[in-house]
Amino acid sequence: MNTPIINIKYGKLIDPFFRDSVKISHPEYKFPEIEDVLKKVSLFKDAWNKQESQIITFLYNETGLEFKRHIIDCVIVSATTRDMSAPLIIRSRYDEAEFVSIMLHELIHILFSDNLIKVEGYEDESKTTRNHIRLFVLMKKYYIEVLNEPELLDKIMSIPDTEINKDYVKAWEIVNSMKFE
Predict the structure, then answer these.
(1) Beta carbons of 150 and 144 less than 8 angstroms apart
(2) Low-confidence ranges of the chain (pLDDT < 50)
(3) CA nearest 166: which of 136, 128, 131, 137?
(4) What does pTM read for this prediction?
């Protein structure tokens, strides 16, 4: 089994670009101090290390896929309008449980991308919704079957039903209508 090294670090060189971008789109946003971001990076590393092996094993067992990369850099920034998987960039605003959830989400995207997994079915739905159905199935299984944390899953699924989130909300609705065995 090819277990990638997950390298969680502060994005010292790219953080100013994300700060500038967020200042334009959200001028009222209060940015954390760099020292606070660095503390979050340390907390995130500790939280990830506690579940990393379990998460990677779960993903491999559930999907039959493996990461093709030997190293996956996870860059933490002060702020961004969206977390992303290519490259893997995550905001510092989360608590440890939220961070692990975001890492799981983004790593599933990376796993599917590494293995050129195409979305099938649900052709009437948006591409974003379709891309997240299988991903959310895996997240739901992990939080229910592995961690036995339905309350944490409820928190993850509680996405505000706004225009920017409508495709994610729809994907969760579809996943929650499925029967799991």
Answers:
(1) yes
(2) none
(3) 128
(4) 0.94
